Amino acid sequence: MTDQSIVTVRGVTRRFGGLVALDGIDLDVPRGIVQAIIGPNGSGKTTLLNALSGASHADSGSIRVDGEEIFRLKPHRIARLGLARTFQNIRIFGNLTVLENVKVASACNVRTSLFNVVASNARQKLTEADIEQRARHALELVGLAGRAGDLSMQLPYAQQRLLEIARALASDPKVMLLDEPAAGMNTTESMTLLVTIARLKAGGITILLVEHNVRLVMGISDRVAVLDFGRKIAEGTPAEVQRDAGVIEAYLGRRHRHA
Amino acid sequence: MKQTVAIALVAIAALAIPAVTQDGYIIQLLNIAILNAIVVLGLNFATGWTGQINFGQAAFYGLGAYATAIATKSGLPWIVTPVLSVAIVLAASLTLGLPTLRLRTYYLAMTTIGFGEIVRLIIVHWEPVTGGTSGLRAIPGISVFGVGPQGQIQHYYLLVVILALATLVAARIRRSALGRAMIATKDSEIAAEQSGVDTTRTKLLAFMIGAVYAGLAGCLYASSIRFVSPDSFSGVQAVLLMTMLIVGGMGSIAGSIVGALTLTILPEVLRFLGQWYLVLYGLGVIVVIVLLPGGLASMIAAFPLRRAGAP
User: What value of ipTM does the predicted structure carry?
Assistant: First the structure.
């Protein structure tokens, strides 16, 4: 299992004071699939995502991405190793253009010296051209190429979400974490998002999807892990998880009763 | 294209000024304004683009000026002073930035305020070397192997050229991965990190590049104005430099220059008002901040010159 897994999580624990937000999570994500992580509010989904991306480190455990231990690395190191993410609350660079937003990420493994920048020499121009070409490619993939020159804060909400995906994509990741990418989207926008996610998967990127919209999750995911109170209570294909009594009790069942 | 035209017009205007007036007082005022513009351009890296509040810029300015004054008065050739000034401000900014820029929020602001005060106290109390409160006079001028500008108008032309170079360097950094990383760090530090930007390094670089601008401007100040005193580099001056950046327009190259030129020249223009000038000056600053949150640069941007877009 571990050999084919691109992400291997072992015993990841995170405490906030007395609250155990993550309680010894194990997770193996096979290469090239869409892995969903679902669970009721406060079950630890975003905490797990933050631990994976380095935004907020876990207290103990081990996280490997493509064989490399990333536990407690700084986020930019993790990003350069091939794990990109989007945010539940949009965090675009509002004072940069759409294209520049994506160029920030497509430059992530490019090294250039201040001397080259100031001299604006041939090597610098080549570097910039390469960064720009990969950024434009990412924008095309999410359908934002037409807005490349616009200031990113002027984009409508759903397009800002797509911009975050383009930005994550531009760092050429092996794994992409999407934190509630459909939040605040209408049906048409969610459909566009589904197409985009399918395209990413076809491009060989492993997707980790945290999402509230159960229908969206079940439709697109290859595997689903269910968290409740910081523990993984079930894992399997969408069909298996939907039949799981514990899941129905903890999550789907509770929702059904409320609905 | 329009930008090229605008730059050409500004360049012609700048070069034509000495043809209109040869008044030594006006040219000297412009020279100081240009030096301030270089310092504020430097401040824009850390504060305007990277979002780090830096009150140490006046102290870096002073370090460059005093290092140059002391070195040349003790007989060292002028040519070593830019190198010396840069070395000193690089060491100082690295020492200040390394421990504080790893942290978020206002630590840099507090550290640089303290640093400015330390530099001022050293200048005031180390009298045998710095001349104390009366400063240092008769500083040798710019001279590269015996060649150097003579008189204020030649200094003016030299400073215009150096300001143009400083602007060009700032514009090139802005259009590079480093410039984008700076603005990304300001807009969202965590998203920048997750996009592969080493935000600590980016903040440190922005702070140090800005310090180099101030150090070099200080070097030129000492050897073109030929007189330094602690007042020119005090905490008040640090706040004034920040005001120039805000009034001109945070994060705008044109705004940094316009803000520095305006706020250096304005007090002299308003001098006929006597003590009332401060009231008008203060009101003017408030009006700009309230009515033009983007600074004077947002007025310039209203003409379609500054398309933040296609670099």
Answer: 0.91
